[in-house]
Amino acid sequence: MFAFLSSGTELHRFGRGKMPKIALVVLMFIPLIYGALYLWAFWAPDHELDHLPVALVNVDAGASRDGEPVTAGQDLVDELVDGHELAWTVTNAKEAAAGVKDGDYYFSVTIPSDFSASAVSAGTGTPLPATVQVDYNDSNSFLATTMGKQAMVQLRDAVATEIGDQTVNALLVGVDDAGDGIRSAADGAGRLFDGLTTASAGAGSLLVGLDALADGAVALDDGAARLTDGTGTLATGLDTLSDGAQTLAGSSVTLSDGTVQVSEGLQAAAAGAATLSEKSVGLADGADRIADGTVTLAGGTASVSTGLKDLLLQMQAAPAGTPVSAFLPAVEQLGAGAAAVNTGAQGALTQTQTYAGLSAQFSAGTQELSGRLTAGAPGAAEVATGAGQLAAGAASLADGAGTAASGAHALSAGSTELAAGTAALVGGTSELAAGGSSLNTGAAELATGSGTLSDALAEGGQSAPDLSADQIAAKTAVIASPVTLVQKWENASGSFGEGFAPFFLALATFVGGLITWLILRALPTRALASAASGLRSTMTGFLPAMAIGLAQVVIMVLVLVYGIGLQPEHWLGMSAFLYLTTLAFLALQQMFIILLGTAAGRVVSLVLLMLQLSSSGGTYPVETTPVFFQVLHPFMPASYVVTGLRELITGGIDSRLWVSVVVLAVMLVGSIAISAWSAGRQRIWTVGRLHPELTI
Questions:
Q1: Can you give the pLDDT at residue 156?
Q2: Going from the N-terminus, what domains does the chain have, and what CATH number goes with each?
Q3: Which residue in 3, 92, 426, 526 has the fewest CB atoms around it within 10 Å?
């Protein structure tokens, strides 16, 4: 059940000696080395970009806006350097280009001379986006370029913020200028509103006056109609009165002629009759005068009525803008005519009343005279007949006088109503004139406010930009994207595969050496048993590995170029360099095996492989890895392999390639030399060599 603890188990042999125990411990840490070490190296490279060396060049010439200097380029430099997002080095264009080419900088950022001018161009008619030039070199590091692109997104945001401030400032200046005009326009609009308010109030007063004027005109028309009717009635009564008076006058003459033949006793009656006849003649004349005045009064009343109707027609036909004061003379003249009619009507009424009283007295006297004549002179038939005719005429005269009195009363009432209507008409006209004055004042304010509004809008229009469709599109593009990144590549990688090829080819050559020495013996024992030197013994094992390594390189290059599609700039140079790398790794691993023994040498090779993977800079820039790997980087052979292959694949060969060639050549020669020295010492066999503590 516990057979694995018995002395016959495989673990039992690790209990003898130091090396087996060390090997057992190393075996337990191999997964940790391959797992945790690699994760540690590339745990958060994007958090270490502040260690990535990048050149920053500022050639901005500056600009001015409204007389104030604008140095957007220097402001951007200060912001980037103070932000510590990358390891910025402010330098000139020549040194930056040389540094990117030699690998001192992974890439460079150049702020052009027109940067500030472009920043303030948004407020002009020819807006231009600000540009920032970025120069990459994939032969430095493909992932450094990739990370640089991500960093440039942050740079673009920073530049967009800086340029956005300039752009918005330029635009807001124009908006503020237009705003001044708009505020003036608002003041003009306020004055316009005040004028409209005043005009509205005047229009209300005008409407009230028009209503009052209409009411007065209606009352005036009614009074004029009643006055006309009363005048007609008065004229009719006066005509009857005149006829009766004439009849009375004739009868009085007849009566006077008859009384001459009456007895002397009737002298007094004859004399009274003669006197009565004279009075009758005067009464007839007065009636004629009243009739004539009544006819004249009727004509005046008709004229007043006609004038009123003409005034109403003029007011209705007048244009909307005709001032009310234009109608005042006609209205005043109409009022004066109405007053005159009223005065005449009052006089006619008085005369008519007086005349009616006299007529009544005359009728009573005549009747009394007739009675006396009848009683005093029965024989005077002619006198009685004349007296009867005289009484009939007097009765007719009394009826006519009553009719005239009624007409005179109606005439007086109509004239009074006419006077009241005329007064209302005059009052309404005055109120209409006041409303028209207010309306005129409001119209003046309205005109002033309109002028102010027009001037302010004109000024605002001049301040506001007058842009064409192309200019609007250009400004929109600049505001939406105020910064343009101009990216240039030196020795650009065509794909991710091409960018990662140096790293994986270095890994492939090292693993190829590991597998080779699993099959081949690093130091054949037959050579050690002979009198051959240590170098010859070493080369006896190395030459077969060289042949296998050559085959590995040829097959790998053919598949990469013709199978996968890798297009190296210098494929022959790449092939030669790969073969040199293969030989160097074979020699190094052979040295570990000869020097440390087969088992320990292979374990050391595995550990070295992991250290090289995490510190060679084949993936992320070594500056983004922990300090431990940065210290290891220059001592790892794969670091030089990756550097040389990048320049041979992407182009841009410089001194770094030759340094890599020298390092690999020295490692090859040095490893063979150490192996030869160790092999020479191994000519003497010991118990430890005959029975090694650890074998694989």
A1: 76
A2: 32-41+495-690 (no CATH), 49-180+466-490 (3.40.1710.10)
A3: 3
